[in-house]
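Write out the 3D structure for:
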Amino acid sequence: MVKRSRRLVAVLVSVAGLVIGGTVLAAGPAQAYGGDGHMDVYQIGISFNCNTAAFCGSENLGGFWGWGELDHNTTTGANTGDAQLEGCGHNGQFSGASHISVDITDWWVAPGSAGPFTFFTNEVDTITFRGHTDVQTLTNDDIGVPAVAGHYSTQDIFGFTPPPGVSAQIQVAFKPAH
């Protein structure tokens, strides 16, 4: 009986190995963002935190964090993208967690709040806050993000060194099409 169980386990392990191996070998390349390398891609990460009541006010504690991608199709000239943002407020009117899903229908670079090379978008935002969902369409929106690859600190963004518990960070990466 023990020999039979061992043989059954060995057969099952062998079959599982063949199935997994066949699946891996049959799978095509991953279709990740950026059109499989055929688009210019900007990736943006943001983090804003304000956890010092003396600086932020007791009603404005919390932060928001997110990731976004802006694609430029070098063949068609289309500029599209998407972003996912999360927020959490403590105390006050905006206490609770929120999520914003952004569908960017067009983007461009122009002088704006982040300097001479600032991202602007036309977008549709789906906002979920405390169980309620709202959809907003924004046009000609200065998103406050530099269109230059690099890391931007609170000092870079707002022009001052923040007190402890306050931080703003933006990371912009660019990958050209190949």
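Strands lie at 39-50, 61-73, 79-90, 96-112, 115-129, 132-146, 150-152, 166-175.
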